[in-house]
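Appendix B: complex inputs.
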Amino acid sequence: MSENHPGPVPLLAARGLVKAHGRTRALRGASLELREGEILAVTGASGSGKSTLLHCLAGIARPDEGSVTYAGERLDRLPEKRLSELRRTDFGVVFQFGQLIPELTAVDNVALPLLLAGTGRGEARARAGEWLERFGVRGQEEQRPGELSGGQAQRVSLARALVTGPRVVFADEPTGALDSLASEQVMTALVHTARESGTAVLLITHDAQTAAYADREVTLEDGVVVSGAGAPLGVSR
Amino acid sequence: MSTRHILLGLLARGPSHGYDLKRRHDERFPQARPLAYGQVYTTLQRLVRDGLAEVDATEADSGPERTVYRSTDEGARELAEWAGGIAPPAPFVTNEIFAKLVVSILADGDPAAYLRAQRTAHMDRMRELTALKTAPGADLSTVLSADYALNHLDADLRWMTTTAARLTHLTAEVDPA
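Resulting structure:
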């Protein structure tokens, strides 16, 4: 588990991010801060730039302009090799449709990040089993994603995102495909575990009831953070 | 909320006295305003007057005398009719937020800023309710009451989001000059 560094210095900060897809500018100067252990919801209408922002913050995409700083490192300038290392050790990602590997069982899906990090198969499977239990999907270890309900599959995805003890979990519409009871189970599990382990969560959602699980909310509009950004961040349009 | 029907519902499980009915009401409906004793006794007397309940016994074990009430057959029929009848869906909900928006446009205020501030207040309340219902040991009555409030606040928020997107048109309609 990562060491905690509470204090005013943000764990992850974006300043003036600009990112275009072809001729469409998805981000037009977006800025935000995520503090250690904080659960932050990023809300906004479809097409407001939420997912692009997540990709830039998680080191999946590089911004055209602006900076992303993670624990003192300029993420947007890191070589690809260091970026993939960070994504493996420090970041966990959950998408709307869990994106589990359909051929692998639940426990092997969760064990995968550990195996990639060099943990032995026996230990990786044992730790994966413990995480499945924490997320209330015990008994489904040997089932494949197609045999799980949407809510169960999403909790397996959460277990996979958290199994390596990341400092930040990025969740992109994690309840987008779920009914309200399954959403509640997924969010309760995510928030409870993140608080217990001091993991920061960046939660992308268009759903206010999901956003209400977070400590704080910022809203994106046309690629710019328009409200709730907290400290003045020099937002420019 | 019909206090007389809720008291009749509590009496459906067997005879009970006013103090016990009040206690069970407040337990069962944790988010509702607690019933005042005066209201419980007045309502019980009216139920007796209307033939829906009757006095079962008068107890005086070790404290003051207590009247125990029970439901009548007429009371059970009335209760079944009420509980199975639909609550009329309101054709238009009284909407203070809409009134404030229109007034804000008329008075050359900043309706967009008002909507953002209102959204923040709604989200603050939704976070409180979410914390309440996910707190360890929260009972199901609390969870369901919080869910009800959350869904209504969420409906307000959706309406505010759509309205924010239509603000230019609304301004033109309210204030054509």
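Confidence is low (pLDDT under 50) at residues 1-6, 229-237 of chain A.
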